[in-house]
Amino acid sequence: MRDTRESRLLLVLLIAVAFALITVDIRGGEDSPVDGARQGAATVFGPIESGVSAAVDPVGNAVSAIRDSGERHDRLAALEKENAALKARLGSDDRSRSRLKQLDKMLKISGQGQYGIKGAEVIAIGAAQGFSWTLTIDVGANDGIKRDMTVLNGEGLVGRVTTVGPHTATVLLASDPDFTVGTRMESGDELGFASGQGDRPLRVELLNGKAEVKKGDRLVTFGSQADRPFVPGVPVGVVSRVDPSGGGLTRTLYVTPYVGFTKLDIVGVVVEAPKKDPRDTVLPPKPKPTPRPTVTVTVTPSAEAPVDGQNQQEQ
Q: Residue 294's pLDDT band (boundaries 50, 70, 90)?
C-alpha cells in the first residue's frame, strides 16, 4: 500500500479500534463482550496446537494414554503396559527419561490410592493469572475437567483446578497464600488446615492444641465433602518445625511439601475419587535411619615415669 492520506487515515482508524477493544475487554473482566470471540479462537486453534504437539512429542502421546484412566480403575494394568512400550520407543533422551519417570510415579500413586486421573502437561506458569502461584495445563472441559478437582503428581498434592476452558485449565498451587486444604496426621486422627506460604513451608493449624507432634511426622489430605475440591489420602508433606504449645485451642506446625512447585511438568487431575479412603497407603516408604559409625578408642598404657628421687641419684 502506498503512503497516501487515505492509507494513513485507515491506519489511525485501525489503531483506535484496537485500543477501544482492549479497553472494553479490560473493563468487562469475566463478562467482557469480546470473551466469546476469544473462546471461539481458542476452540479453533486449540486442537491445531494439540495436534502439532502430539505429532512431534512422543511423551505427549504417553500423557494422552493415561488421560482416559478415569473411566475405570481396572484399566491401570493396561496403561502401565502401554507406558512400558512407550519407554522402549523413546530411547535415551534425558528429558524423555525424566518425563517418563514422572509418569511412572504418578501411575503408581493413582494405583495405590485408586484415583481415576487424567494426565496433563504444564504449559504455562502464573504470571498470566495475576502473579499468584498458579499454572496452566493442557486439558480442559473437553477432557472432562471441572472446577475444584484435585491435582497431584508422582510426589503428592499439587493443587486444585480453579478455572476451566475448552482445552486448558488453571491450577492453584498448594503453595499459594490463598490455598487451604484439610489435613490428617499419619497413623492418627489429628486434623488441621494447611495454608500456602509461597516459597516457605506450608503452615498447618492443628485443631487439637495439645496434640503430640514431632519433626518428621507426615500429613495427607483429609478429603472434602463429595470429594471436591480434595480427595482423601494424597501425600501433603513432612513436619519440619513445631511451635511450642502455648495452651491455645490450636497448634501450629510447619510442613515441607513433597512437591517441588518450581519444577512441575507432568501432573494428573483426579476425575474419579476412590471408593474407599486410602488413609496412609499412598505415602512413600519412610526413609531408613542412617546408622552412625561407632568409634572405639583404645588407650595403650605407657611406661611409668621415673620418680624424682631416682632421677637425682642417676645424676
A: low
pLDDT digits (tens, 9 = 90+) for 200-252: 999 999 999 888 999 999 999 999 999 999 999 999 999 999 998 766 788 99
Q: Cα separation of 218 and 42, whole Å?
A: 42
Query: What crossing angle do the helices spanning 76-90 and 58-67 adopt, rounded to 10°?
Result: 180
- Specify whether the CB–CB gap between 237 and 255 falls below 8 A: yes
Residue 187: other Cβ atoms inside 10 A: 11
d(CA 89, CA 176): 38
Q: What is the identity of the amino acid at 165?
A: G
Largest CA distance in the chain: 127
3-class secondary structure for the chain?
Answer: CCCCHHHHHHHHHHHHHHHHHHHHHHHHHHHCCCHHHHHHHHHHHHHHHHHHHHHHCHHHHHHHHHHHHHHCHHHHHHHHHHHHHHHHHHCCCHHHHHHHHHHHHHHHHHHHHCCEEEEEEEEEEHHHHCCCCEEEECCCHHHCCCCCCEEECCCCEEEEEEEECCCCEEEEECCCCCCEEEEEECCCCCEEEEEEECCEEEEEEECCCCCCCCCCCEEEECCCHHHCCCCCCCEEEEEEEECCCCCCCCEEEEEEECCCCCCCCEEEEEEECCCCCCCCCCCCCCCCCCCCCCCCCCCCCCCCCCCHHHHHHHC
Distances (CA, A) of 21 to 13, 27, 32, 41: 12, 10, 10, 16
* Distance in angstroms (rounded) separating the CA atoms of residues 213 and 207: 12
**C-beta of residue 222 within 8 angstroms of C-beta of residue 183:** yes
How far apart CA 66 and CA 82 sit, in angstroms, is: 9
| Three cell numbers written together for 50 | 494439540
Please tell me the pTM assigned to this model: 0.67
Do 117 and 182 contact (CB within 8 A), yes or no?
Answer: no
Report d(CA 214, CA 252) in Å as an integer: 12
Q: 87: closest CA among 77, 98, 75, 78?
A: 98
